[in-house]
Amino acid sequence: MGIENLAEKAQILIRSRLCNPNFIFKPLSDSPDSNYSKLKFIISSSIMEACNNSILLLGPRGSGKVAVLELVLSDLLEEYPDTITVIRLNGLLHSEDNSAFKEIARQLCMEHHLLFSKMASFDDNSQFMIAMLRECGLAHKTVIFALDEFDLFAQGKQRLLYSLLDAMQSVTSQAVVVGVSCRLDADQLLEKRVRSRFSHRKLLFLPPSKEDVQRLLEHILSLPMDSSLAHDYAAEFNEKLQSILADERFKEIISNYLNSNSTTNHLLRFLFIAISNMELKSGFLSLENFKAALSSIQRQPKQECIKDCSILELYILVCMKRLEIREQNSYNFSSVMKEYKSIHDSFPTSDYYAQNVCLRAFEHLLQRELICFTDNRGHSQSIEFRQVKLVVSYAELQEGLKSYRSCPAILLKLIDR
What we know:
Elements: H1 3-18, H2 21-25, H3 35-49, E1 53-58, H4 65-79, E2 84-90, H5 91-94, H6 97-111, H7 122-138, E3 142-148, H8 150-153, H9 159-167, E4 175-181, H10 192-195, E5 201-204, H11 210-221, H12 231-246, H13 248-260, H14 264-276, H15 287-297, H16 301-307, H17 311-325, H18 333-346, H19 355-367, E6 371-373, E7 388-390, H20 394-403, H21 409-416
Parallel strand pairs: 1-4, 1-5, 2-3, 3-4
Antiparallel strand pairs: 6-7
Helix pairs in contact: 1-14, 3-4, 6-7, 11-12, 13-15, 14-15, 16-20, 17-18, 20-21
């Protein structure tokens, strides 16, 4: 088998891993201190001891809350196949009480092979849920409610949360409520009557540590030695991978990326781009693949626009930035032209244009949305006198000028001052 075919197979294998949350989070679940272990212990204890429980999974989007929850639920369904019922709700779809109770009734009917009535009223579905919780408790079965986007259920009258947590106060019911939210103050959104029935357990999903990242990279990118891939190729691939992971330049790339995007989901996205950049002819990953992924994922649309600007437009942007640095927050085209003239008087160059030409460049910057009007008032005013502001940050403008091939040296000096 040719090296290109082997490389293509390796690429497909690694990309399939990156799309499989179970594979990704399994190595992070071995530790007894992991959120996986803690969540599994809480839910399994509730099942074994026949008690009610509630818990919140909190952390930024992409930190693996739902993936870990699904991993725990799949493991528990294998261990206790006849004693668990899982009801899944999402705040984006079911935050309205009527639709939430109807969805709970539908899923309970499907799970227990009952006839579901679409015409049932709100009260009917509410009473049905309470009755089913009581019946499941008497039959020693646990109902697990997984509420994604939990903070959306906490809006409005919170009748669903109150009914659910109130029903769990009964000794006959047996249920676990798991809320998932990216809001760290999700429990503070609860009404007093709901909060008093909540058990106040919380698991925080923090960015992975350096050790976790290293272990995750090896777990995802290393090829298995006992697969359909040639043994020699897999061994050489893993050897080259280890040298890349140990390279200080690679560690710097990962560190730079995680400083801006520290969640596991963002790391997986970065690795997917790096794997897609792998050259099939060489058959192996290289440091350049990760460099290309970093530059691709950190592309700034505003910087791309600056590269397509004319020299005059660059002058206008620098003039506006200089006005802002001097804390002149309110300015218009006329103010910018005064700054432009002062620059030319201090540093005489050939890049000096008539006011009507500058106005056309100014309008072009408005069209490209690199600058904008400060408010929507003053439509009757001429463009020269309407207040404007920059939509480009200092860092974006500075990097844009540096990457501009024929940028005048004077502009780089002015922006650095």
